[in-house]
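User: Could you check the structure of this?
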Amino acid sequence: MELRMTTTFPDVSISTERLVLRPFEAADIPAHTEMMNDELVTAWTSAPHPYTAADADAWVGRIAPAERTQGCGIVLAVTEFLTQRLVGTLRLQNTNWRTLSTEAAYVTAPWARGEGYATESLLAVAQWLFRVQKFERIELRTAADNTAAQQVAQKIGCISEGVLRNAWIARTQTEDGGWTDIRTDLIVWSLLPEDLEGVADHMADAGYASFSDWN
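Assistant: Sure, the predicted C-alpha cells are below.
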C-alpha cells in the first residue's frame, strides 16, 4: 500500500540584506498588475493577457494563498527591503511531499531587472528549502529561448538534465501588436542540496547579499 502524505509549507517570510520575500498583500495589486503586463512576462508565462486588476485581485486574495493551504507549494512576493516595492514573485509548485521535491518558477519586474534579484531570491529559498524544510530536490523548467531564466538557474548551481520537446506554449508579438501562441521546448534543471556547496560564498564574492534569515 502506497504511503500518501500531504502537508503544507509554513506561512513564512524570508529575508536577505536587500530583499524580503513574503506573502502577497492587497497593497501589491497595482504593481503586480503592471509587472504581469510586461512584454517578457507575457511572452514566457501563461498569465492572462491583458492582465487586469481583477486578475491581480484573484491572485493575491485567492490563488496565491491556496497554493500553500492546499499543499501544492507557496507563492512569495519579492520586495526590496529598503523601499518595500514589489520587484518580482517566486513560486514553488507541484510539490511532492513524499519525495521532498518541488518546482520553482520566478518573475522579475521590468523596473528591477539587472539587479540580480531573481538569483538572490531563488538562492535564499533554496537554502531555506534544503536547510530548514529538509527538501532533496528543486526543479526548474525554462523555455528554450528564455536565456535570462536559464542564466539564473546556472548562477545558483542548477544542473541541466535534458529537454522536454515541444512541451510549452509561449507567446510572440505579431506585426499588428497583438500576441500569438508558439510551441517551444522546455529545458529541465535540477538543484540538490550538495549543489549549493560553495555557491553562497561564490555569490557573496560576486557582490550578492547574504542569505540567512527567515521567520
